[in-house]
Amino acid sequence: MKLETDTITNLNAGSILAIGAAAIRAGDCTIDFSGVRRCDTAAVACVLAWLRLAEAGGHRLVLVATPPDLLSLAKLGGVDALLAGAGQA
Questions:
Q1: Considering 17, 34, 59, 71, which has the largest number of Cβ atoms within 10 A of its Cβ?
Q2: Is residue 1 part of a domain?
Q3: pLDDT digits (tens, 9 = 90+) for 9-59
């Protein structure tokens, strides 16, 4: 699923989380961030929630074009190892 937004912040994270969760429940466990240019820690929270949801369904989450901001925030928050559990494409 390609995210149709250029930002993921606390202002829109709830809807982004729901869209990603619906895609994962439907069997699409690939999240494409290629259009995302800016994100805050809410994006990290979304990815962690999607990761848990995919794993609970016996699937592996795959992240495509993960924004550098998201990776930096995950590292700063000490959860970069968890994100490494999601495949990077």
A1: 17
A2: no
A3: 999 999 999 999 999 999 999 999 999 999 999 999 999 999 999 999 999
Total count of domains within the chain: 1
- Does residue 26 lie within any of the structural domains? yes
Full domain range(s) for residue 57? 7-88
Q: Is 75 part of a structural domain of the chain? A: yes
Residue type, 76: L
Q: What is the pTM of this model?
A: 0.92
Q: In 3D, which of 84, 37, 28, 80 has the Cα closest to residue 57?
A: 28
CA atoms of 59 and 36, how far apart (whole Å): 24
Q: What is the pLDDT of residue 83?
A: 78
